Amino acid sequence: MNNIFVIAGKEMKSYFASPAAYIIIILFLSLTGWFFTNTLFIDGGQAELRSNFGIIPFLLLFFVPALTMKMVAEEKKSGTIELLTTLPLKDSDIIFGKFLGSLFILLLAVSLTFPNILTVGLLGKPDWGVLFCGYAGLFLMGAAFTSIGIYTSSITDNQIVAFIISFFVLFLLVILNNLLIFLPFQSVFEYLASSTHYENMLKGVIDSKDLIYFFSIIIIFLTAASKTLESRKK
User: Fold this and answer.
1) Calculated CA dihedral for residues 132, 138, 141, 144, nearest 10 degrees
2) pTM surpassing 0.85?
3) What is the pLDDT of residues 163-217, one digit of tens each?
4) Which of 39, 51, 86, 203 is the most buried (most CB within 10 A)?
């Protein structure tokens, strides 16, 4: 477990050593802040965060791939992944460490939207339970998306390819719920759509099936990423 946190810390330090990290986070906060302000004031909206919760998944389509694309792909391209795999580390330690490092950065970006919560609390009468469930859903979706990004980064040594594959997969998960009328086995595809489970939590409902969905994605893709690293030794 200690190895996982060491790798996570290394990834966070490495990420913030680059100006790209600050640019991505500032851009994320600027867009969420603009949409919040637009809904709250310009369009005469009420003091609420549902509009923000609705737009953030689409921002994550760009933010998460940009965050995770280099996590394994860069190591493979530079050859440092070979050094990591020769150390007394499990492949799962490497993957989970990089996952936790990425997830921390994502949580930091989301937590910096806290001023929006203060604004809603001052100007309106929000349902704090619904707000909590909304942020819980956002956290779980972000974690699931991050695991997918780590996996796509593990299957290539090209960061751009990793970004494109990750974006495509996440895009399908977000819009799948809107394509059900064109698909057979609608109940199956509805369950596979991340937006279905996220929207359930935005209603203030935390259901076991939604938790199982997000945790299953995290476990499946992180396990797949670990297997990808293991295959390099054969």
Assistant:
1) -90
2) yes
3) 999 999 999 999 988 887 877 887 888 888 998 899 888 888 888 999 999 999 9
4) 39
> What's the domain range around 141?
2-231
Between helices 208-231 and 128-154, what is the axis angle to 10°?
Answer: 20
- 10 Å CB burial of residue 60 (0-12, 13-18, 19+) is buried
Which DSSP symbol is given to 39?
I
The one-character DSSP state at 70 is T
209-210-215 Cα angle (round to 5): 100
Helices (H), 155-207: 159-175, 186-192, 194-202
Is the distance from CB of 222 to CB of 99 less than 8 angstroms? Answer: yes
- Give 27-43 pLDDT, tens digit per residue: 888 888 777 776 655 44
Find the largest Cα–Cα distance for the chain: 61
The H-assigned helical ranges of the chain are 2-16, 19-37, 50-68, 73-78, 80-86, 91-111, 114-123, 128-154, 159-175, 186-192, 194-202, 208-231
